[in-house]
Model the fold of this input.
Amino acid sequence: MASTDGPEAPAAVRAKYAETIRALHEVAEGLVPFATDDTDFIYRAQAVLATASDSVWATRLEALANQELEFACPGCDEQLVMGLETSPALVKQFDDASVGVTTVAPSAPGQLTGSEARAYELTTTYRRAQVAKQLLDLFGIFECPACHFTGRTSTAFS
Ligand SMILES: [Zn+2]
Done:
């Protein structure tokens, strides 16, 4: 239902199977407390987001498990990669290290809305401190090292 390259648009799928998706959402929420480690938790939290709405994070929260997120800069279209191994996270151009590296400005928990707020709430409810910290980077403000476009990470996917 979160797939953007399926036979039907996500919005159409959500409308058509609304009742089933609501039931799946309850199942997804019920499974979060049983996460065995942070990686397991990230995938369970992503399932909660995917069954809730058309959030850009419905398929991308797993970047936290991979410790990196690839995206095209909305300013110059260069392919960028956000590395989440460090805190704060770093952003570099995918195939040209010579442009350098920028540092992400983490989001403040109180500034999060929608699915970002929901994901953060799950990390606090289930005491996933390390995931919570990385979420604030993932949902933060990045600067493109090539063109210096600055914006929230989610703007790269809208
Ligand atoms: Zn750029």
Summary: Residues 73, 75-76, 78, 144, 146-147, 149 surround zinc ion (CB under 6 Å).
